[in-house]
Amino acid sequence: MANSKILLLLCLFAFSFSRALAFEPSPIQDFCVADKTSSARVNGMVCKDPKLASENDFFFPGLHIPGNTSNTQGSKVTPVNVVQIPGLNTLGISLVRIDYAPWGMNPPHTHPRATEILTVLEGTLEVGFVTSNPDNILIRKILQKGDVFVFPVGLIHYQRNIGHVNAVAIAALSSQNPGAITIANAVFGSKPDIGVEVLTKAFQLDKGVVQFLQTKF
Ligand SMILES: *[C@@H]1O[C@H](CO)[C@@H](O)[C@H](O)[C@H]1NC(C)=O
Q1: Contact 100, 71 (CB under 8 A)
Q2: Predicted confidence (pLDDT) per residue in 147-205, tens digit
Q3: Which atom of ligand 1 is nearest the CA belonging to 71?
Q4: Considering the domain 73-179, what is its CATH architecture?
Q5: Where do the structural domains in the chain lie, given as residue ranges?
Q6: Ligand 1-lining residues (CB < 6 angstroms)
Q7: Helix runs in the chain, H state only
């Protein structure tokens, strides 16, 4: 009996500990406005003196301004994270605006540190994410204005404008610094290149195709 209680306590302890490691740690102060001038390296950014914090440390203007979608993908992400709002430091949340030209796409990518919740303000989007190995199931949905969709942390996802007009979305992310890994760019555009022999085998492609893809990214 006593043994099973100890076991239960150990399990609870292990559970709370793994939560603390898997997500951004809870703040133990009101805020920690990032001091961008500090050269100290910590998990997050160093706090500036809270007495020096002001309203502009918690403020970003301009998310009404459309991003420029004149690029190969036909989309533009405007981030609002700890880089734009130093007061977001340690708070585990951020925002993006995404603009899509007609048939534009936010290509397959993942956020290593954040779940994303997206809402469509204008237009019609096809969105989807793929579950992890071994199933790799595509969870896909067509979204209209006002619809909300979730991309779980770490999973590869995309959005595509399937309308004839511009589309706009706002998404919140559960990290002050979610990070993004765009699959094609990371795999075919790494610096230096991943060896052709690795990519030909991994993707079952001819060497020439791999080299062509590497020139694209
Ligand atoms: C949008 O980006 C394109 C390509 O970089 C550039 O030529 C164009 O001037 C930009 N448009 C605006 C309004 O900034």
Answers
A1: no
A2: 999 999 999 999 999 999 999 999 999 999 999 999 999 999 999 999 999 999 999 99
A3: 4
A4: Sandwich (2.60)
A5: 73-179, 182-217
A6: 68, 70
A7: 2-22, 183-188, 196-203, 207-216
